[in-house]
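Bug #2210: token dump truncated for HNH endonuclease?
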Amino acid sequence: MAVMTAVTGCKAEEVKGSSGAEPTGAKGAALSAVDSLDVKGRAPKTGYSRERFGSAWADTDSNSCDTRDDILKRDLKEVKFSGGKCKVTFGVLEPDPYSGKTVTYRRGRSLVDIDHVVALSDAWQKGAKYWDSSKRIALANDPLNLIAVDASTNRGKGDGDTASWVPPATKYRCTYVAAQVAVKKKYDLWVTSAEKSAMKKILTSCPAQKLPAGGNPTNAPSRFRAR
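Reproduced locally. Full output below:
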């Protein structure tokens, strides 16, 4: 997929970051953080599977709710539950950050995905294949790396990095790229030279964009296992 370089309309957004916490750091922290990332070529995808990052939506923060429901609760409006305060059955994504449209979530026939901002396959090819399972499980369930989005828009992303995919909604691109930088910095994942250039191109258009922070520890509790 060709790199998307149109960044008109992109601006620094004073909104909550992917972690649910207010973005922190000095002015322009996201742009400056790009230079702290190691640059290497993409490693082969050999050996990758979703199971290498543990079972989906593990409750690594031990709040008795799975990770998917945690993110739905955080990102949706008008949330309704079934059987307590964990199982989200309804909510509204208004607006969807990737497309800008309003999307309704209904459990069992959802139009909403929980996206890994840094795709797990991309992470595998840029360092995660060399980690122990605890760190991979942590990445897969870290709120800093997760966001509720329109499913149809998200399916076009695949395992793309900033060099090959950015959200169609131009106003969200700076926030999105800053989140990718934050996750890659937190987990010591590298970037390709094309990816670094694309990150800097977008973030240069919003030099005040801050770097999101927070999320979970970079190692999951020992009770969780992965292949």
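Output looks complete on our side. The first helix runs from residue 29 to 34. Marking as cannot-reproduce; reopen if the truncation happens again.
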